[in-house]
Amino acid sequence: MEKISAQVIIHGWVQGVYFRAFTRDQARSLGLTGWVRNRRDGTVEACFEGEKEKVDQMVAWCRRGSPSSRVEQVEVTQGPFSGAFDSFQIRYQ
Fold this sequence. Notes:
The protein is of the alpha+beta class. It is built from two helices and five strands; from the N terminus they run E-H-E-E-H-E-E. It has one domain (3-79): Alpha-Beta Plaits. It has helices at 19-29, 52-64, and strands spanning 3-13, 33-38, 44-51, 70-80, 88-90. Strand 2 and strand 3 (44-51) form a beta hairpin.
């Protein structure tokens, strides 16, 4: 299986609605590593690493979002797998 990474920025009503916790739980259920964090501009940023099919599933989930969120736009940049992460975590600034 091909492994990749994806850097994702999610725009919309995505802070204060448990988006990061739902993202963490979904990523872990897919066996992905990486992180998710709130950004000062009101967006949420995430980095996912793992099997391409699973990363693609996670990006699709980000387009739908958590139950209370309202996703308006998702920017995705795919890159090579780095293997830099041991698990999937929420990052706090």
